[in-house]
Design goal:
This protein has five helices and two strands, in the order ααββααα. By secondary structure, the chain is mostly helical.
């Protein structure tokens, strides 16, 4: 499998894991009731907060496309920055539910593979490793 296909696939895995971690969290008893009060985990849910979450959740989605279309340094840096930001977002989720920890572990492993892939492998002329 070439690197772009591998990256494209890893971003899809990350995206689905994020979605399913949230879905399972929502069906955890008491979570939806708490969220409907406008506060979740002691944090007030505002439109601004939801916009920040939307932007952070959009990163893996846009990276599915960009990992197939960008080349060279832009490809390497976009994947790296998006992976690091996504890792921080996942790690700061703060949930201690076993399902969330499992999904977060899978997501972080995929994101680390993405970072390693863009910095260590040379398998396409547009992605040649720089010295």
């Amino acid at each position: 499998m070439d690197r772009n296909t591998r990256l494209f696939t890893l971003w899809i895995v990350v995206m689905f894991n994020i979605a399913f971690a949230d879905i399972l969290s929502f069906i955890t008893p008491g979570v939806l009731e708490e969220m409907m009060t406008g506060v979740a985990g002691g944090i007030k849910i505002t439109q601004g907060l939801l916009l920040v979450f939307a932007v952070l959740l959009e990163l893996p989605i846009i990276m599915i496309f960009l990992s197939r279309t960008l080349t060279g340094a832009a490809h390497r840096w976009a994947n790296t920055v998006a992976a690091v930001v996504t890792m921080v977002f996942v790690a700061s989720g703060g949930s201690v539910y076993p399902h969330y920890i499992f999904f977060a572990g899978v997501e972080v492993a995929c994101l680390l593979i993405i970072i390693c892939s863009v910095w260590t492998q040379v398998d396409s002329p547009g992605l040649a490793k720089t010295a």
